[in-house]
Design a protein that fits this description.
The protein is mainly α. The protein contains 9 helices and no strands. It is elongated and about 60 Å long.
Length: about 190
């Protein structure tokens, strides 16, 4: 079990840089790993976590109202990741199914609707396992299209060319994959 660092809240709120550095040292790697699983990029995950820690330090005087620093950090990282995914989907070209990218964000948001849940990390790992199993069960073509879109970041046109299929077929596979993933998440509610 992970060591609780709740005792650091008050010193950090009072401006103790050594306590903040302790928190950073003990939680940075775990938070980056979790963010990486959400945003799919090590660099973007590190950027998100760095931004969260920067905001924690800037707003340290408000920390005294927080009971559990880990829940707070994981919720802040999760929210920043979801915001990053929303921003990314808005920046995508018209042919990259930005509507479905927003659905990816909604899928994660549905899974983590309670910011104060102390079991967030465990729950995320459970959801991640279920999603990975669902993706593995997709028909081969659908799985390839989904992975190329979501993990490799290819556009619909690039996926179509790589797989020698039409952009409409790519669109169909992505919509069907996302629909199946939503069903997996809803089946546990």
């Amino acid at each position: 079990m992970k060591r609780t660092l709740d005792y650091l809240i008050k010193p950090i709120a009072n401006g103790d840089i050594a306590s903040f550095e302790t928190l950073y040292r003990y939680r940075y790697a775990d938070l980056c790993g979790w963010a990486w699983q959400i945003v799919g990029s090590k660099e973007k995950a590190e950027e998100v976590v760095d931004d969260v820690f920067t905001q924690v330090w800037k707003n340290r005087s408000t920390l005294s109202t927080i009971l559990h620093i880990d829940s707070y950090l994981y919720a802040a990282v999760r929210n920043s990741c979801l915001n990053e995914l929303k921003s990314k989907s808005r920046r995508q070209e018209n042919n990259t199914l930005s509507v479905d990218a927003d659905i990816d964000v909604e899928i994660l948001a549905e899974a983590f609707h309670d910011e104060n849940d102390g079991y967030e990390q465990y729950a995320f790992q459970e959801v991640q396992t279920r999603l990975a199993e669902a993706i593995d069960s997709f028909p081969e073509k659908m799985r390839n299209v989904f992975v190329q879109s979501r993990r490799e970041g290819l556009t619909m046109d690039e996926i179509a060319v790589r797989n020698d299929i039409s952009a409409n077929t790519v669109r169909y596979h992505l919509k069907e994959a996302l629909s199946r993933l939503r069903q997996v998440l809803r089946s546990d509610k």
